[in-house]
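Postdoc handover notes: sequence design on the structure in folder B. Input tokens:
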């Protein structure tokens, strides 16, 4: 009697034990891994070919939260995708797996054969280059890789992009034009070539705490809503997350930032920064490391209120001299200096002048937030190579509340003598302008928004190195908006946008 397809679906640990038993019994186990969003002839042929290589075929289905393939993806939830695969006769067992590290589950199951679609061969070597170059033995050392012969004309992404209205017509036309001008392989080469860029990040480090609450009701004695604390998450934000974003693109990253002696949180910070980031911490005596606590309704994900722990005054003269003495010698040794200025007292006017005089190229993002509204303007900088602002920050800088954003961009560019400026416009995408007068407008690529916190930092982190590398303006804007579409799917600054995720996303939306 055949097993019902629901019984084919197992938990990861249970399937690991099952595979161990099958292999001891002499069975040849084959594994296929992927999203399996749509079951089409290409998928069916791939799985049939895979099953033909052994006795047992297991399929690992990637969880929803690890899928960043483009607008509206996945079409079906992880449970439905697992059930659809399990319903196929050639599949013996299915499980739903994490995929934060690509193909990590292959190491868990240790199949005799790992089956990959032939059509993904060249793409994966570009997208997951590190996996192919450095970690192949780690994941596949005990498994033989078999490339199946599916129908290459079928692709879930191609079918979804063609037949489902995930983007408005204007965006579809933009992507069609863009894909004719910029091939995916060329974009991947540009991004992969960033690894040799030496980047120095200078800015305000911020620790973001998300405190999740459950609303209990209105207080009987006071006109306030009472919430019950449930749990919390802690993330590295500000200059910390910018350094982490960039460390996925560039091999050598240095972070110079400010901590507080009152409550430095140095161990946490050191643990969350990527291994290829070196650090130089300075300390202020009159305040803590900056912490921003956001209180959030657990069910609706609505932010209720925020409490900041910081000293917003400039660092004292002694600390400033120490910072300047250190920066004076190291700034010229870097290809690009990224200034992440949140206006919280670390980057003083004297430090700005030093950066302007010593950097080969420097890029700036001046953030407007509740602690500095109207006082942290991009106009305090002169001659940056690249500037990234959101629309509100740009309007504050020009004191122009209702004017045309293109005119505002020109005013800022001319006033600070920048080489290039990008203004992000929320749902309207972005506008980019350079000193030669080239203007580029790029639409938004996101349809699913989990959290907008940190999206601007991700946009800046990816576009500034792209500009420094000499990419064309339209490609810089495209990469920025694609990065932003991935960033808004991440809760706060829980993790950086990865290069392989960005390449997967770009590959998908350009099909």
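Designed sequence:
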């Amino acid at each position: 009697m055949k097993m019902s397809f629901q019984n084919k679906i197992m938990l990861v640990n249970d399937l690991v034990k099952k595979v161990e038993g099958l292999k001891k019994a002499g069975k040849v186990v084959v594994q296929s891994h992927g999203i399996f969003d749509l079951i089409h002839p290409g998928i069916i042929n791939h799985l049939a070919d895979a099953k033909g290589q052994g006795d047992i075929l297991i399929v690992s289905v990637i969880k929803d939260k690890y899928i960043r393939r483009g607008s509206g993806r996945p079409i079906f939830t992880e449970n439905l995708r697992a059930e659809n695969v399990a319903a196929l006769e050639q599949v013996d067992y299915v499980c739903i797996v994490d995929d934060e590290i690509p193909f990590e589950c292959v190491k868990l199951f240790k199949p005799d054969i790992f089956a990959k679609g032939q059509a993904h061969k060249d793409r994966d070597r570009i997208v997951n280059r590190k996996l192919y170059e450095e970690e192949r033995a780690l994941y596949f050392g005990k498994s033989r890789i078999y490339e199946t012969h599916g129908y290459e004309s079928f692709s879930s992404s191609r079918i979804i992009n063609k037949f489902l209205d995930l983007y408005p017509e204007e965006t579809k036309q933009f992507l069609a034009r863009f894909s004719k001008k910029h091939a995916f392989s060329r974009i991947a080469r540009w991004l992969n070539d960033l690894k040799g860029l030496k980047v120095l990040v200078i800015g305000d480090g911020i620790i973001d705490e998300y405190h999740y609450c459950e609303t209990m009701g209105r207080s009987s004695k006071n006109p306030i809503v009472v919430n019950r604390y449930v749990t919390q998450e802690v993330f590295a934000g500000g200059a910390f997350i910018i350094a982490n974003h960039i460390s996925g693109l560039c091999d050598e990253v240095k972070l110079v930032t400010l901590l507080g002696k009152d409550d430095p949180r140095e161990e946490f910070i050191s643990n969350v920064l990527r291994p290829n980031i070196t650090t130089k911490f300075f300390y202020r005596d009159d305040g803590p490391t900056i912490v921003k606590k956001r209180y959030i309704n657990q069910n609706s994900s609505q932010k209720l209120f925020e409490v900041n722990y910081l000293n917003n005054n400039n660092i004292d003269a002694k600390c400033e001299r120490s910072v300047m003495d250190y920066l004076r010698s190291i700034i010229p040794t870097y290809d690009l200096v990224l200034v992440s200025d949140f206006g919280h007292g670390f980057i003083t006017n004297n430090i700005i002048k030093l950066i302007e005089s010593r950097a080969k190229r420097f890029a700036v993002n001046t953030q407007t937030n509740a602690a500095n509204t109207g006082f942290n303007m991009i106009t305090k900088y002169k001659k940056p190579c690249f500037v990234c602002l959101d629309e509100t920050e740009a309007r504050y800088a020009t004191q122009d509340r209702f004017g045309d954003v293109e005119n505002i961009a020109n005013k800022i560019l001319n006033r600070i003598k920048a080489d290039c400026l990008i203004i992000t416009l929320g749902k309207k995408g972005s506008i980019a302008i350079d000193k030669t007068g080239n203007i580029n407008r790029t639409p938004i690529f996101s349809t699913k928004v989990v959290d907008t916190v940190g999206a601007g930092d991700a946009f800046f982190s990816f576009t500034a190195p792209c500009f420094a590398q000499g990419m064309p303006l339209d490609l810089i804007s495209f990469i920025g908006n694609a990065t932003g579409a991935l960033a808004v799917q991440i809760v706060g600054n829980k993790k950086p946008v990865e290069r392989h995720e960005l390449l997967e996303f770009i590959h998908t939306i350009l099909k």
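Context for whoever picks this up: The chain has two domains: 5-166, 189-509. Don't rerun without checking with the PI first.
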